[in-house]
Amino acid sequence: LFKAGAISSRRMRADVPLTRPRGRRRRTAVVVASAFLIASAIGLAFNSQFARDANVASAAMRTAPATRVSFASMAGRQASMMMRKSSAFPLDRKTMREEKSVFSSASSSGSPRDILIPNAAHETKSLDDYVKERGGDRPIRRILIANNGMAATKSILSMRQWAFLTLGDDKALEFVAMATPEDLNANAEFIRLADEYVEVPGGKNSNNYANVPLICKVAAEQNVDAVWPGWGHASEYPELPDSLDKLGIRFIGPDGRVMSLLGDKIAANILAQTAEVPSIPWSGDGLTADLDETGRIPEEIFNKAMVTTAEEALAAANRIGYPVMLKASEGGGGKGIRMSNNDEELKTNFVQVSNEVPGSPMFMMQLCKQARHLEVQIVGDKHGNAVALNGRDCSTQRRFQKIFEEGPPTIAPPEVFKQMERAAQRLTQSIGYSGAGTVEYLFNAETGKFYFLELNPRLQVEHPVTEGLTGINLPATQLQVAMGIPLSNIPDVRRFYARDPEKTDNPIDFMTEDYRNIDNHVIAARITAENPDDGFKPTSGKIERVNFKSSNKVWGYFSVGANGGIHEFADSQFGHLFASGATREEARKHLVLALKELNVKGDIRNAIPYLGQLLMTDAFIENTIDTSWLDGIIQAKKVSVTNEPLEVVTASAAVRAYNHVKNNIESAVESLAKGQTGLQDLKNINRFPLEITYNGEKFSFVAERASPDTIRLMINDDTIEVKTREQPDGSLLMKFGGVTHKVTAQEEPLGL
After folding, report:
1. How far is it, in rounded angstroms, from Cα 459 to Cα 469?
2. How far apart are CA 499 and CA 496, in angstroms?
3. Which one of 25, 68, 192, 458 is the catalytic residue?
4. Residue 439 clears pLDDT 50, i.e. is over it
5. Residue 668 bridge partners (DSSP)
6. Which of the ends of the chain has fewer CB neighbours closer than 10 A, N or C?
């Protein structure tokens, strides 16, 4: 095969005179052709279409020797990137465009991309025309994804979909991904989806995805037009947009000044009060401020809202009234936040919050009892406009981490939620916010009152709920806003307001006009690698496969592929399921069925069955939950996933018996293959004892082979006959008690 590659490359050189290339381009054609054939030969792109692809490649070489060839696998892409390091494949993007070359990745479905034939000029021209026609100021073609996991996966899928549906070419945008050794070893899906990746240091995120100097260095070296930050990591670091701006690279999100203001929860609350957004009683009650010449809250006003000592905290708590929440202004993700019911608890919690987020200013707010967590999805543009794209109810939380998200928030009357949207728009416009963000509120269903919680200056994990309600592609909307396109000129937004998406001559007044009626409900469930039997502690390890079937009512995103995994530094969330229905109840039922059919096989633990049980509780069905509901259920252990003990014990004993027989037979065969005639391994395969301990009880069985696929399990005076068949995926089909069970078993340090 290697000879064939060499011969074919010589033949290709002989065929080139149709358009005889000069030195460099001729060498490029030879290198690309040889590499493609060699890569195919070693199995990187070898499939039933190899011959046809090779012919297409050959034809492309003859017509344009500098064409860059894509490969069906990541390994093939690595070969291409190695070639790009040579003089024939410069990394300079300007030169790449002059050569009209294209480098593409495998498609999201995993099928090989077609070999690309120039000219690529129409792609560049169509994007330029689109931005110009829509009133933008700067096309963005090459994007660095400064994130991993779900964020990176979803962003690439969404923006590539937009490029195809809008420009007719999903390769009009190029995606460069940052990837740690851990993500590479875990076979992370976003790396496969990206056009290129740059390996960055591994370990905790301060070494990579939250390392602002590193992100800027990679962005500059890869000559990207913009950086997409996602959520988490460095997405809320003001120094990232500021540093990128100095490099002439756009940040797909708000500027550093706005992010700095909103990242500080004290400043955000003062800004909300200034924009006449209702706030819950807190240590900064009634404070308003105009921004100073540096674009920040004047220091003397800011300091009035802080609690800097335990004594100040106690004084504020007694003025506000218990229970109270003590918060670190720079905290988040469940850190730097504690509830106190009295003075003694507050004294202890003050020390804990101080230690969790060292150096952060602290403030205090009254705990809103029986509160719902409602959100408004907002997007601001560079022209002073802000649109509210309905919202979400994220009240199902565990330790302040969202579990289910749904929309629209039916618990709030429509007229009240409209007030929440308008308040969010006022706040967004008042600070010159540009990009996607979320204004979060606490809502009291009994009184109908709502209170400002915070404005998250980034896209949220649960944004696909809004996409399912509005039909608006949010990552693509972020991209278009970053290109300077006004919101009124973005086709998805115009459709949502029942306007002609092709026109741009009739702007929308988002503060006075209403969007179309929303006629469906969407509920989402986060799929995490957490162990519900051990306090929902995160787990890591290999994932052999995720078996999920979408439908017209259910869809999902997963950050891992076959033979992937979750590493110790990764976020525990690796999937997100969404279900839609004409009503909330219909959407709930669709999601329950989807969770029942979702199967994840591997070393990790997950809470999928537990989520299904939560969706079937009376409180969730009747929509009477609040933000403390799930923590109360977990503490009281009101919901649990249980199996019939007899079935569990029988299946466990059958698994152990099956593996005992299988392992001994394999060992005997191996011995015979080595010429060893001893059959010691076969002596104990027809009848043997085994023990199973379950829920503190020990079960002593005697196992007896009745036939090659049937084992009798005898205990006391009972006999259970189990017929077993191993499936290609490693699971076992077991028939006992007149029922067929599909059993997946795994040995762990604590047992089977």
Report:
1. 16
2. 7
3. 458
4. yes
5. none
6. N
